Amino acid sequence: MGKLIEGAVVSEKILNDIQAEVSSINGDRPPCLAVILVGNDPASAIYVARKQKVCGEIGIRSIEHRLPQEATNNEVRAIITQLNQNSDVDGILLQVPLPKQLDESALLQLILPEKDVDGFHPVNIGSLLLGREGYRPCTPAGVIELLRFYDLKTSGKHVVIVGRSNIVGKPQAALFLLNDDFGNATVTVCHSKSADLASLVKQGDVVVAALGKPEFITADMVKPGAVVVDVGINRIEDK
User: What is the rounded CA–CA span in Å between residue 158 and residue 28?
Assistant: First the structure.
Protein backbone atom coordinates (compact mmCIF):
# COMPACT_ATOMS: atom_id res chain seq x y z
CA MET A 1 0.00 0.00 0.00
CA GLY A 2 1.42 3.39 -0.99
CA LYS A 3 1.81 6.39 1.29
CA LEU A 4 -0.38 9.45 0.73
CA ILE A 5 1.41 12.76 0.41
CA GLU A 6 -0.90 15.13 2.28
CA GLY A 7 -0.61 18.64 0.97
CA ALA A 8 -2.82 20.13 3.69
CA VAL A 9 -0.35 19.05 6.39
CA VAL A 10 2.55 20.69 4.54
CA SER A 11 0.53 23.84 3.88
CA GLU A 12 -0.37 24.23 7.55
CA LYS A 13 3.28 24.06 8.61
CA ILE A 14 4.40 26.58 5.97
CA LEU A 15 1.62 29.01 6.86
CA ASN A 16 2.45 28.76 10.56
CA ASP A 17 6.08 29.53 9.76
CA ILE A 18 5.11 32.53 7.62
CA GLN A 19 2.73 33.83 10.27
CA ALA A 20 5.53 33.74 12.84
CA GLU A 21 7.85 35.54 10.41
CA VAL A 22 5.27 38.22 9.61
CA SER A 23 4.53 38.82 13.30
CA SER A 24 8.23 39.36 13.96
CA ILE A 25 8.54 42.18 11.39
CA ASN A 26 9.42 45.50 12.97
CA GLY A 27 7.73 48.33 11.13
CA ASP A 28 4.61 50.42 10.86
CA ARG A 29 2.76 48.20 8.39
CA PRO A 30 2.38 44.51 7.48
CA PRO A 31 3.43 43.14 4.08
CA CYS A 32 0.89 43.89 1.34
CA LEU A 33 -0.20 41.70 -1.58
CA ALA A 34 -2.26 43.18 -4.44
CA VAL A 35 -4.29 40.75 -6.55
CA ILE A 36 -5.75 41.60 -9.97
CA LEU A 37 -8.65 39.41 -11.12
CA VAL A 38 -10.04 39.91 -14.63
CA GLY A 39 -13.20 38.19 -15.79
CA ASN A 40 -15.30 35.41 -14.33
CA ASP A 41 -13.21 32.25 -14.55
CA PRO A 42 -14.57 30.04 -11.69
CA ALA A 43 -11.20 28.48 -10.80
CA SER A 44 -9.51 31.89 -10.71
CA ALA A 45 -12.19 33.23 -8.38
CA ILE A 46 -11.59 30.30 -6.02
CA TYR A 47 -7.81 30.85 -6.10
CA VAL A 48 -8.12 34.56 -5.35
CA ALA A 49 -10.62 34.04 -2.52
CA ARG A 50 -8.33 31.43 -0.99
CA LYS A 51 -5.28 33.68 -1.24
CA GLN A 52 -7.10 36.56 0.41
CA LYS A 53 -8.40 34.31 3.20
CA VAL A 54 -4.91 32.99 3.91
CA CYS A 55 -3.42 36.49 3.88
CA GLY A 56 -5.91 37.53 6.53
CA GLU A 57 -5.08 34.51 8.67
CA ILE A 58 -1.32 35.05 8.68
CA GLY A 59 -1.23 38.83 8.97
CA ILE A 60 -0.60 39.93 5.39
CA ARG A 61 -2.69 42.79 4.03
CA SER A 62 -4.41 42.02 0.73
CA ILE A 63 -5.90 44.33 -1.88
CA GLU A 64 -8.14 43.13 -4.71
CA HIS A 65 -8.65 44.84 -8.06
CA ARG A 66 -11.48 43.14 -9.96
CA LEU A 67 -12.15 43.93 -13.62
CA PRO A 68 -14.94 42.71 -15.93
CA GLN A 69 -14.54 40.04 -18.60
CA GLU A 70 -14.37 42.68 -21.36
CA ALA A 71 -11.55 44.69 -19.73
CA THR A 72 -8.90 46.10 -22.08
CA ASN A 73 -5.13 45.86 -22.00
CA ASN A 74 -4.93 49.56 -21.16
CA GLU A 75 -7.20 49.14 -18.14
CA VAL A 76 -5.14 46.29 -16.72
CA ARG A 77 -1.90 48.08 -17.58
CA ALA A 78 -3.03 51.17 -15.67
CA ILE A 79 -3.66 49.15 -12.50
CA ILE A 80 -0.30 47.35 -12.73
CA THR A 81 1.52 50.66 -13.25
CA GLN A 82 -0.24 52.18 -10.24
CA LEU A 83 0.69 49.18 -8.05
CA ASN A 84 4.30 49.22 -9.29
CA GLN A 85 4.58 52.82 -8.13
CA ASN A 86 2.89 52.24 -4.77
CA SER A 87 5.62 51.74 -2.16
CA ASP A 88 3.07 50.25 0.26
CA VAL A 89 2.50 47.29 -2.09
CA ASP A 90 5.14 44.56 -1.76
CA GLY A 91 3.74 41.96 -4.15
CA ILE A 92 1.53 41.98 -7.25
CA LEU A 93 -0.33 38.94 -8.49
CA LEU A 94 -2.13 39.01 -11.85
CA GLN A 95 -4.40 35.98 -11.79
CA VAL A 96 -4.13 33.89 -14.96
CA PRO A 97 -5.56 32.76 -17.32
CA LEU A 98 -6.77 36.09 -18.62
CA PRO A 99 -9.63 36.68 -21.09
CA LYS A 100 -8.52 36.07 -24.67
CA GLN A 101 -8.47 39.72 -25.74
CA LEU A 102 -5.70 40.48 -23.24
CA ASP A 103 -1.96 40.12 -23.91
CA GLU A 104 -1.07 37.92 -20.95
CA SER A 105 2.67 37.82 -21.64
CA ALA A 106 3.02 41.60 -22.02
CA LEU A 107 0.97 42.32 -18.89
CA LEU A 108 2.95 39.86 -16.76
CA GLN A 109 6.20 41.44 -17.97
CA LEU A 110 4.93 44.86 -16.90
CA ILE A 111 5.00 43.83 -13.22
CA LEU A 112 8.27 44.83 -11.55
CA PRO A 113 10.42 41.71 -11.00
CA GLU A 114 10.83 42.57 -7.31
CA LYS A 115 7.02 42.60 -6.91
CA ASP A 116 6.36 39.60 -9.18
CA VAL A 117 5.41 37.12 -6.44
CA ASP A 118 4.17 34.59 -9.02
CA GLY A 119 7.67 34.38 -10.50
CA PHE A 120 6.50 34.71 -14.12
CA HIS A 121 8.58 37.74 -15.14
CA PRO A 122 11.44 36.85 -17.55
CA VAL A 123 13.93 38.21 -14.99
CA ASN A 124 12.67 35.79 -12.35
CA ILE A 125 12.46 32.88 -14.79
CA GLY A 126 16.03 33.68 -15.86
CA SER A 127 17.16 33.69 -12.24
CA LEU A 128 15.56 30.27 -11.78
CA LEU A 129 17.35 28.84 -14.83
CA LEU A 130 20.66 30.25 -13.61
CA GLY A 131 20.14 28.98 -10.07
CA ARG A 132 20.02 32.48 -8.60
CA GLU A 133 17.76 33.86 -5.88
CA GLY A 134 14.37 35.16 -6.96
CA TYR A 135 10.65 34.50 -6.85
CA ARG A 136 9.69 31.00 -8.02
CA PRO A 137 6.38 30.06 -9.70
CA CYS A 138 4.25 28.89 -6.81
CA THR A 139 2.94 25.53 -8.03
CA PRO A 140 6.34 24.09 -9.02
CA ALA A 141 7.85 25.47 -5.81
CA GLY A 142 5.00 23.82 -3.90
CA VAL A 143 5.84 20.45 -5.42
CA ILE A 144 9.41 20.80 -4.16
CA GLU A 145 8.15 21.72 -0.68
CA LEU A 146 5.92 18.62 -0.63
CA LEU A 147 8.89 16.40 -1.44
CA ARG A 148 11.10 18.23 1.06
CA PHE A 149 8.56 17.81 3.87
CA TYR A 150 8.40 14.04 3.30
CA ASP A 151 12.18 13.84 2.69
CA LEU A 152 11.68 12.40 -0.80
CA LYS A 153 15.03 13.42 -2.29
CA THR A 154 15.27 13.52 -6.07
CA SER A 155 19.07 13.68 -6.47
CA GLY A 156 20.05 11.01 -8.98
CA LYS A 157 16.40 10.09 -9.65
CA HIS A 158 14.45 10.19 -12.89
CA VAL A 159 11.66 12.78 -12.76
CA VAL A 160 8.96 12.71 -15.44
CA ILE A 161 6.81 15.84 -15.84
CA VAL A 162 3.64 15.54 -17.90
CA GLY A 163 2.89 19.03 -19.20
CA ARG A 164 5.08 21.84 -20.55
CA SER A 165 3.22 25.02 -19.61
CA ASN A 166 5.06 28.20 -18.70
CA ILE A 167 3.24 28.17 -15.36
CA VAL A 168 4.10 24.63 -14.22
CA GLY A 169 5.87 22.25 -16.59
CA LYS A 170 8.85 24.34 -17.71
CA PRO A 171 9.72 25.93 -14.33
CA GLN A 172 9.15 22.56 -12.64
CA ALA A 173 11.81 21.03 -14.86
CA ALA A 174 14.21 23.87 -14.00
CA LEU A 175 13.68 23.36 -10.26
CA PHE A 176 14.44 19.65 -10.52
CA LEU A 177 17.71 20.49 -12.28
CA LEU A 178 19.00 22.75 -9.49
CA ASN A 179 22.03 21.54 -7.58
CA ASP A 180 20.54 20.31 -4.30
CA ASP A 181 18.97 17.21 -2.71
CA PHE A 182 15.55 18.03 -4.15
CA GLY A 183 17.02 18.79 -7.58
CA ASN A 184 19.92 17.03 -9.30
CA ALA A 185 17.42 14.88 -11.18
CA THR A 186 17.37 13.50 -14.69
CA VAL A 187 14.29 15.25 -16.08
CA THR A 188 11.95 14.19 -18.88
CA VAL A 189 9.21 16.61 -19.92
CA CYS A 190 6.30 14.99 -21.77
CA HIS A 191 3.63 16.81 -23.75
CA SER A 192 0.91 16.33 -26.36
CA LYS A 193 3.44 15.48 -29.08
CA SER A 194 5.39 12.93 -27.02
CA ALA A 195 5.41 9.45 -28.59
CA ASP A 196 4.51 6.47 -26.37
CA LEU A 197 3.71 8.63 -23.37
CA ALA A 198 2.79 5.68 -21.16
CA SER A 199 6.25 4.12 -21.43
CA LEU A 200 7.93 7.45 -20.67
CA VAL A 201 5.82 7.99 -17.55
CA LYS A 202 6.57 4.48 -16.36
CA GLN A 203 10.29 5.30 -16.25
CA GLY A 204 9.76 7.98 -13.61
CA ASP A 205 10.89 7.59 -10.02
CA VAL A 206 8.90 10.80 -9.52
CA VAL A 207 5.94 11.72 -11.75
CA VAL A 208 4.42 15.22 -11.79
CA ALA A 209 1.07 15.38 -13.59
CA ALA A 210 0.47 18.94 -14.80
CA LEU A 211 -1.62 18.71 -17.94
CA GLY A 212 -5.14 19.65 -16.84
CA LYS A 213 -6.87 16.42 -17.83
CA PRO A 214 -8.48 14.48 -14.99
CA GLU A 215 -7.60 10.77 -14.61
CA PHE A 216 -5.16 10.93 -17.52
CA ILE A 217 -2.39 9.18 -15.59
CA THR A 218 -3.56 5.66 -14.73
CA ALA A 219 -2.11 3.10 -12.34
CA ASP A 220 -0.63 0.96 -15.12
CA MET A 221 1.46 3.95 -16.27
CA VAL A 222 3.27 4.26 -12.90
CA LYS A 223 6.00 1.90 -11.78
CA PRO A 224 5.88 0.39 -8.27
CA GLY A 225 7.37 2.66 -5.62
CA ALA A 226 7.18 5.82 -7.71
CA VAL A 227 6.17 9.15 -6.18
CA VAL A 228 3.23 10.80 -7.95
CA VAL A 229 2.26 14.46 -7.50
CA ASP A 230 -0.89 15.68 -9.24
CA VAL A 231 -0.97 19.48 -9.48
CA GLY A 232 -4.10 19.70 -11.61
CA ILE A 233 -7.43 21.04 -10.37
CA ASN A 234 -10.42 19.71 -12.29
CA ARG A 235 -14.15 19.52 -11.73
CA ILE A 236 -15.48 16.01 -12.33
CA GLU A 237 -18.73 14.20 -11.63
CA ASP A 238 -18.67 12.48 -8.24
CA LYS A 239 -18.81 8.75 -8.96
Answer: 48
Nearest to residue 216, comparing CAs of 205, 232, 237?
232
Whether the CA torsion 47, 48, 51, 53 is positive or negative: it is negative
Catalytic pick from 51, 115, 170, 172?
Answer: 51
What is the DSSP-derived secondary structure letter of residue 116? Answer: B
Could you give the percent of the chain with pLDDT greater than 70? 99
Residue 51 bears catalytic tag: yes
**Residue 103 pLDDT grade (very low, low, confident, very high; cuts 50, 70, 90):** very high
- pLDDT tens for each residue of 16-55: 999 999 999 877 789 999 999 999 888 888 889 999 999 9
Concerning whether 95 is annotated as a catalytic residue, the answer is: yes
Q: What are the C-alpha distances in Å from 159 to residues 11, 110, 128, 134? A: 23, 33, 18, 23
Contact 110, 122 (CB under 8 A): no
Burial classification of residue 35, based on how many CB atoms lie within 10 Å of its CB (0-12 exposed, 13-18 middle, 19 or more buried): buried
Average pLDDT of the residues in 134-147: 95
Choice among 28, 41, 82, 95 that is catalytic: 95
Q: Provide the edge-to-edge strand list for the sheet that holds 227-230.
A: 186-190, 158-162, 206-209, 227-230
In order of 27, 36, 211, the CA distances from 214 in angstroms are 46, 28, 9
Q: Exactly one of 115, 116, 118, 172 is catalytic; which is it?
A: 118
- From 185, 173, 227, select the one nearest 205 (Cα to Cα): 227
